[in-house]
Amino acid sequence: MKSFERLVLAYLEAITGPLLYPLQFACRANRSVDDAVNMGLHYILQHLDKPGTYARILFVDFSSAFNTIIPDILKNKLSQLSVPTSICQWITSFLTDRQQLVRLGKLTSGTRTISTGAPQGCVLSPLLFSLYTNDCTSKDPSVKLLKFADDTTVIGLIRDVDESAYRQEVEQLSLWCSHNNLELNTLKTVEMTVDFRRKPPALPLSPS
After folding, report:
1. What is the pTM of this model?
2. Cα(46)–Cα(52) distance, rounded to whole angstroms?
3. Domain Reverse transcriptase, which positions (predicted)?
4. Angle, nearest 10°, between helix axes 85-95 and 71-80?
5. Secondary structure letter of residue 21 according to DSSP
6. What is the pLDDT of residues 134-161, one digit of tens each?
7. Pair 200, 54: CB distance under 8 Å
8. Which of 29, 66, 75, 156 is packed most tightly, with the most Cβ within 10 A?
9. Residue 208: what pLDDT?
10. So what's the pLDDT on residue 83?
11. Are 123 and 10 in contact (CB under 8 A)?
12. φ and ψ at 9, to 5 degrees?
């Protein structure tokens, strides 16, 4: 089964690679988490060279990210990315009615049927999650949304204390999550402000 999953993975990467969100750095040839970090630093430092600017950086944590994928929603998104119907149907079947149990020492739980999420340890799971979240993007050029699989960072490039675009994008992210069965973990989602001004004001933000 692992060999077949790798064949599907290679096929999906070939089809969807050019269509992936450009700031998604996972499951892409010649890209790594280091590239994501360097790109974020480039955006921030280039912005801070200008007067009256600062940056707000939101490190987003999703609760049980890979376990939240809805197969039918994923199927529709794959279709929009020109993935053939036969592959969409196979992936839907692969993610639906999976049998799961827990083994601890000599104890084994009963079997439970799972029809959401992507299996942990499956070679397809990171790409499927990346495709599932491919339409979660930033519309405003002053807000950059960087991704590495389920790691997401929102960078607000603020000028003249105008945070409207940044706040709107954070609200849109929260709304997108509610429409796609993802939950923001507000306890682990943290924010950092990078501000070289002499008297930076307090800038609280509470994503809902």
Report:
1. 0.86
2. 13
3. 1-208
4. 160
5. -
6. 999 999 999 999 999 889 999 999 999 9
7. yes
8. 156
9. 57
10. 96
11. no
12. -60, -50
pLDDT of residue 27: 81
The tokens describing 132, both together, are 């599932």
Give the number of other CB atoms < 10 A from CB of residue 9: 18
Q: Indicate the residue type of 124.
A: L
Query: Tokens in use for 82?
Result: 């020109």
Strand, helix or coil for residue 168: helix
Beta strands 151-159; 143-148: pairing state: antiparallel
Q: Report residue 125 CA to chain centroid gap.
A: 12
Name the one residue in this structure whose structure tokens are 């809805």: 70
Q: Please report, as a single letter, which amino acid is at residue 75.
A: K
Determine the Cα–Cα distance for residues 35 and 58; give it in Å rounded to an integer. Answer: 18
- Give the residue, 206 or 124, on which the prediction is more confident: 124
